[in-house]
Amino acid sequence: MNPLLDRLQPYPFERLRQLTRDIVPNPALRPISLGIGEPRHPAPELVRQALVGGMAGLSVYPPTLGTPALREAMAGWVQRRYGLALDPATQVLPVCGSREALFALAQTVVDATKAGATVVCPNPFYQIYEGAALLAGADTAFANSDPARNFAADWSQIDEATWSRTQLLYTCSPGNPSGAVMPLDEWARLFELSDRHGFVIASDECYSEIYFRDEPPLGALEAAVQLGRSDFRNLVVFTSLSKRSNVPGLRSGFVAGDATVLKAFLLYRTYHGSAMSPLVQQASIAAWNDEAHVVDNRALYRAKFAQVTPLLASVLDVRLPDAGFYLWAAVPGQGGPGDDIAYARQLLAQYNVAVLPGSLLARDAHGTNPGRGRIRMALVATTEECLEAAHRIVEFTRSTQAPSS
Questions:
Q1: End-of-domain residue from the set 275, 290, 305
Q2: Segment 173-200, tens digit of pLDDT
Q3: If both were cysteines, with which of 57, 144, 155, 166 could 199 make a disulfide (CB 3.0 to 4.6 Å apart)?
Q4: DSSP state for residue 359 in the 8-state scheme
Q5: 121 close to 170: Cβ distance less than 8 angstroms
Q6: DSSP notation for 19-59
């Protein structure tokens, strides 16, 4: 077996299952899960129709590069969303969901023959970043989130010696789990570091279309152009239809950016065997070309968060995020944050509500685990179900703070 597999840690949801396997949830209450970020709003009808209409594609092998029509639809969306003109032939590449692409890019970019090859990740983080780095033969370094900056990554925690060994940097904006959006000055700093040390930036932007401000979140390609980097050197952006269009089972997204990096990535993917099904390509064209269903979806989240967030804020340290569909809340303790794992276990046992302990989303780095004492709640279900879960969380939290008789 590949010895690098031994370096992998269990996925957060597997760790949570192990930590709660002895619990029998309250049978008087129906189970509600706020743990997994799986969109559960209805999929658009236009996507369903395109899937059915694309059945003839079952008879052909799909090209890894995708059809010109698909790449043009993706580039067209970038033009409408960010005002940027991409070359569909060289700067856009379809992928089977952002998850597999985020993993595969590390296998393309990392040169493990160089001593100390390093991949830098935010902390907390999407665990695919770490797994991709380790299986590519690299070491990992973590930039902990900064509570003073809405839990965005503090890149200053990475020292110059580590930056000099860095070959790949993962960013996530809007962030998972905090929803923080990276501002232009932060992009300027990362681009300067990339130029100085030659590493590739992989910008995970799968939550970009669920936001609560009037202005949509700044994207990495958009930031690059504003900073005079229209060649997108050493920059690759990842986006997906899963959250934008409520089709996580479609496994469809694309990467865009530096044509030189994408050329190497296409070569890797050709051998990797990750071409998108022709049916999915047709459905994806329909989804990328339509914005009405995205506006409706965003309105559903805005209405839901407007009702749920104040309710939870009455007992937890939590606020409306910049974007995304998570609430990142501190659990109460004696004189500070409480035990996030104990809180999640007791909430599940007493009120049959599942949340994800923040410490499972992070690693011990720089003397601390930045997810400790917090929980992530995915408000992906209906407003009614999320409100019921919120009322249970309020009742549970108040009961834990009530003075004992």
A1: 290
A2: 999 999 999 999 999 999 999 999 999 9
A3: 166
A4: G
A5: yes
A6: HHTT----TTS--EE-SS----SPPPHHHHHHHHHTGGGGG
Same domain? 273 vs 306: no
Residue 312's domain comprises 3-42+293-401
Contact between residue 380 and residue 157 where contact means Cβ atoms under 8 Å apart: no
pLDDT by 10-residue block (mean), the chain, 405 residues = 94 93 96 95 96 90 95 98 98 96 98 97 97 98 94 96 98 96 97 98 98 95 98 98 97 98 97 93 98 98 98 97 97 79 96 97 96 97 97 96 60
For 41, the token pair is 């709003």
Burial of 133: CB neighbours in 10 Å, binned 0-12, 13-18, 19+: buried
Indicate if 91 and 215 belong to the same structural domain: yes
CATH classification at residue 300: 3.90.1150.10
Q: Is 107 exposed, middle or buried (0-12, 13-18, 19+ CB in 10 A)?
A: middle
Distance between CA atoms of residues 144 and 77, nearest Å: 33
Residue 270 CA to residue 108 CA, distance in Å, equals 12
**Angular region, 207: left φ>0, alpha ψ -120 to 50, beta rest:** alpha
